[in-house]
Structure formats: C-alpha cells, structure tokens
From TrEMBL:
<feature type="domain" description="Lipoyl-binding">
    <location>
        <begin position="82"/>
        <end position="158"/>
    </location>
</feature>
<dbReference type="GO" id="GO:0003989">
    <property type="term" value="F:acetyl-CoA carboxylase activity"/>
</dbReference>
<keyword id="KW-0444">Lipid biosynthesis</keyword>
<keyword id="KW-0092">Biotin</keyword>
<dbReference type="InterPro" id="IPR000089">
    <property type="entry name" value="Biotin_lipoyl"/>
</dbReference>
<dbReference type="Pfam" id="PF00364">
    <property type="entry name" value="Biotin_lipoyl"/>
</dbReference>
<dbReference type="InterPro" id="IPR011053">
    <property type="entry name" value="Single_hybrid_motif"/>
</dbReference>
<keyword id="KW-0276">Fatty acid metabolism</keyword>
<dbReference type="InterPro" id="IPR001249">
    <property type="entry name" value="AcCoA_biotinCC"/>
</dbReference>
<protein>
    <recommendedName>
        <fullName>Biotin carboxyl carrier protein of acetyl-CoA carboxylase</fullName>
    </recommendedName>
</protein>
<comment type="function">
    <text>This protein is a component of the acetyl coenzyme A carboxylase complex; first, biotin carboxylase catalyzes the carboxylation of the carrier protein and then the transcarboxylase transfers the carboxyl group to form malonyl-CoA.</text>
</comment>
<keyword id="KW-0436">Ligase</keyword>
<keyword id="KW-0443">Lipid metabolism</keyword>
<dbReference type="InterPro" id="IPR050709">
    <property type="entry name" value="Biotin_Carboxyl_Carrier/Decarb"/>
</dbReference>
<keyword id="KW-0275">Fatty acid biosynthesis</keyword>
<comment type="pathway">
    <text>Lipid metabolism; fatty acid biosynthesis.</text>
</comment>
Length: 160
C-alpha cells in the first residue's frame, strides 16, 4: 500500500462517518480513527520503527514586575565574594582518591594553589583537579560520585 492508497482510504473513512477502520495485510496494518472515535489517524507497518516526538516547549510563566527577594537570591549575593573552582571537563566527580581513602578536602579546610581538591573520572581515566587559588573551602557544590559538566562549579572558596 502506497501513500496515495492511504490518503484515499483516509478520505473514504472521513466521508463514511465511522469511528474506526482497521485494514490489515501480511506485511502492513493501518488503523484509522475519526473524531467520532476520539483519536487521530494512525498507521503502523509490521517492521515498526518508533520515533519520539519533539518535546513540547512550555510557555514561559508570567512573572510579576516586582518579586520579593528569595533566600536563593540573598545566598547568591553573599556567594559573590567567593571564588568558584570549576570542572575543567565532563566526567564523574569524586571527593576521594579511592573508596578506602579519606576525602581530599572538607568544608572549612584551607587550600593552596596546586593542592588536589577532587578527582574527575572521564573515560576510565582519573584526573586530579588542583586548586587554582588559595583560601578556605566554604561550600562543596557537587555530591560525591555524581556526573559533572564542563565548567560546572564544584567548590566555593573564600580567598581572604
């Protein structure tokens, strides 16, 4: 059955005002449901190939012109005085060099330039990530053994 035959069958079914028609051969099956049946036209070939539909984008939510200051906004403002250590690659973030060892750093620890702060595993290679600045670790932004993206913030450091 080619596309012309399918189009003719759809026209015939819509004029006949029936709710559903099924047509089946050895290698082809088609089901046409009209609005009387509540569904749209669908057809499937026996060696079926499934494709996912493009995700629907939600309309942006309307926001009021003046919004109250949230806790996240005040935290972001206070975090602006801190320097961020970011991931230089995509991979899996680990706080320890191996499962039986201690973590590289904790919140409150002092770091110096060149000190290893974590390991990022990428393609079975464990890459030591060194601090680019000296200071005190204020916050660890990523959970252990979680995936990280390139340029994703990992730590907040107070350089003072």
């Amino acid at each position: 059955m080619d596309i012309k035959d399918i189009q003719n069958l759809i026209k015939f079914v819509s004029k006949a005002e029936v709710s559903e028609v099924k047509y089946k051969t050895k290698d082809f099956e088609i089901t046409i449901k009209t609005p009387l049946g509540g569904n749209e036209v669908s057809y499937v070939a026996q060696p079926a190939m499934y494709h996912s539909a493009a995700p629907q984008q939600a309309a942006p939510a309307q926001t009021p012109a003046v919004a109250p200051v949230s806790a996240e906004q005040t935290e972001a403002a206070s975090d602006s005085k801190y320097v961020t250590i970011k991931s230089p690659m995509i991979g899996t973030f680990y706080r320890k060099p191996s499962p039986d060892k201690d973590v590289f750093i904790n919140v409150g620890d002092e770091v110096s330039t060149g000190k290893v702060v974590c390991v990022i595993e990428a393609m079975k290679l464990f890459n030591q990530i060194e601090s680019e600045i000296s200071g005190k670790i204020v916050k660890i932004l990523v959970d252990d053994a979680s995936p990280v993206e390139y340029d994703q913030p990992l730590f907040l450091v107070d350089p003072s």
